Amino acid sequence: MWWQWPHWLPLAVLVPLGGGVVTPAVARGSARRAWGWAAGVSAATVAVSLALVIRVARGGPFSYAFGGWQPPYGIEFRFDEVSAFAFVVAFLGALAIVFSRQYAPHALAEPRVPYYYTLLLLDIAGLIGFSVTGDLFNMYVFMEIVSLTGYALVAISGERIAEMAAFKYLVLGAVSSLLALFGIGMLYGVTGTLNIADAASRLGAAASTMPVIVAVALLVLGFMVKAALFPLHVWLPDAHAIAPSPVSAVLSGLVVKLGLVGMLRLYGVVYASRAVDLSSLNWLLTWLGAVSIVMGAFFAIFQDDIKMMLAYSTISNIGYIVMGFGLASQYALVGAAVHIFNHALIKSALFLAAGAIIYQTGYRRLSDLRGVGRGMPLTAAALSVGAVSIVGIPPTAGFLCKWYIALGAFEAKRAAFGFALVFGALFIFVYYIRMVNAFYFQEPVHADVTHVGDPPLSMLVPVWILAALCLIMGLAGKVPLTFVAPAVSRLLGPLGG
Amino acid sequence: MKRALVIVLLAIVAMPLLAAMAAMPRFGSAEQPAYTHVAKRYLERGVEEAGAENVVTGVILNYRGFDTNGEVTVIFTACAAVIAVLAGSRNRQDQREAASSVPESLVVRYVVRLLAPFIALFALYVVLFGEVSPGGGFQGGTVFGALLIVMTVAVSRNQAERLLPLRIRPWLQIAGPLSFLAVGTAGVVLTGWYLGFPQGATAATRLMLMVLEFGIGVGGATVIASIFWRLGDEA
After folding, report:
1. How far is CA A338 from the centre of its chain?
2. Could you tell me if residue B87 is inside a domain?
3. What does the domain layout of chain A look like in residue ranges?
4. pLDDT per residue over A46-57, tens digit each?
5. How far apart are CA A293 and CA A370, in angstroms?
6. What is the pTM of this model?
7. What is residue A39's predicted lDDT score, i.e. its pLDDT?
């Protein structure tokens, strides 16, 4: 079948990578040409990564050996169920690029637009590479591509405050990359290999566990800064709120997940090798996850800036996922893994809808946006669907994964965390209610807000595709859950769980 | 007070790191896993398998060529990031030309002009001989990039920029990733794998390695110079 062609796997990275680097040369300074090219490349990326998802669903995980060198001598791409994140990346990336058609020339200086698409495509390439690679150092290389493009995309609008936010992001991001690199170096020193599967089989034979413990700690710390787990989140709110909205969608929906996918890979190595006992780490992550949920929601309540609110909400949701990791039971991990996908959809829907509202009205504070539900009915409705999903009200995409994480808490006999999760959801409910209330029920402060009209189709269509997916993924929620279950069983298998 | 706190904190963080380092396999020992597992094959069979007499080149371009594919992309990303963040922020074309036409010192200018061809030749040598001796595209590209910067500072920016014509500069900047894509695709045709090289030191392997080294060199030099010029626009 067409999807069995082996070269789809490298192409999933090479298409956006090659397409991204040539964008400025192809565009020759024209924003319109750059958009057309980037949209074509991202559509091709979606098609390629779809082939990979079909193949993994039909036949289970598969590999690609670069240069024909069999692992561990060469670099291996390994596509498993978790790597299906690559498809989410390609899909959301494509929607963000479509959305940028009118948004980018409006938000950026004209000469920057082709480079904006270059950076977006490279970001997509890096994220796809990160989620499909089976090699520790290769993972670092892709992490650097993602981080570098991320810093630049935050700063690209050229406002002073954006540059400050990007700088803060850059400093913390560089430190976290360095920590991860150091951890990878130590793992190499102990095992003599960079291949993830090979490291998993050799780590158990390490002469001393001390370097392994420190290496794991450094990697976890690095990944958790990237994922913005409380209290390592300080870079996130400004960077995500100030970036151009399609970039916010990509950063909040996809880029923070890099740390989480990295965690799953690390767990794969450590659980399989049984080199060190992770129960104290998991205990810490469960607590930090719970604190993250509550603190993220707490800060979000006090935000008036709509994008700032969404940015804090990401911290809460990362908390859910990390808590699921920490609980380390089948249900919790399945829920956490699926929430990586679903949160990406929901948060992109929210950020793109918020971006469309800001584009049309020029306001970004809730107090200024009162009554916008009347002025932009379709956009505000999409934003409300996203809000309902992220709170986790059935039957939307946010419900089932959170439900699974709560079940996992009970399964792990730590019911208190299940209640913490529900409590957090109530908190989150409060501030999204505030938003919906402002949009529909409060008297407008600015009269123009009530008759601005919905945004152009290039914005409305991506927003509504995502909002519809929030509903569809809720109704068909079983599909992703059963899809990732084999990967989680493989991960937990060595624990006898 | 704050400084004392930082010192205490650093000491606390340093302790586990030092303890871990002490427990690592002995540095330089021939029995440590870093030498006995994967690296062993590189050292024993690298020259005939990977087609490069310099084993380091064999590892970075052949065994782990895809990492280098990513690294050259990182280098271009840095360039794209600088351009994206600074493009169109301030246009000081006129002032720049007025300022750069006045040389800092006649002696420096003369020496730079005298040395320029030799530096360029050396850069080319480092690029082309990376396959057999220390060096390669990254190093040679850096030497050439440094030459462009020296020329900009000591002679004139216009003269330096003429070496990388504006019309094809977007293509020169991506020479690194493009050469990898080309050689990688050639690998698919020849061996069935992306970035696959025919076994041993055949003419095809040498040519492919040369294309990679050259692409990395041209791309690296262009990126270094472009970043420098872009930052100069900003000052």
Report:
1. 12
2. yes
3. 278-497
4. 999 999 999 999
5. 27
6. 0.94
7. 95
Q: Does residue B1 belong to any structural domain of this protein?
A: no
Q: Are B198 and B50 in contact (CB under 8 A)?
A: no
Measured between beta carbons, the chain A residues lying within 8 angstroms of B93 are none
The partner residue sitting opposite A211, judged by closest CB among B23, B70, B170, is B23
Between B67, B84, B173, which is nearest A156 by CB?
A: B84
Helix, strand and coil percent figures for chain A, each rounded to 5: 80, 5, 15
pLDDT score, position A497: 45
Chain A residues inside the 8 Å CB shell of B25: 189-190, 207
**Closest residue in chain B to residue A6, using alpha carbons only:** B193
Strand-pairing partners, residue A64, are A77
Residues of chain A with C-beta less than 8 angstroms from the C-beta of B187 = 67
Is A152–B85 a contact, with Cβ atoms under 8 angstroms apart? yes
Which value does ipTM take for this structure? 0.91
In a domain, B98, yes or no: yes
Give the model's pLDDT for residue B175. Answer: 93
- Tens digits of per-residue pLDDT, B192-231? 899 988 887 688 888 898 899 999 999 999 999 999 998 8
Residues of chain A with pLDDT under 70: 494-497
Q: By three-state DSSP, how is residue A308 classified?
A: helix
- Interface probe for B, chosen from A69, A142, A156, A202 (most Cβ of B below 10 Å), is A69
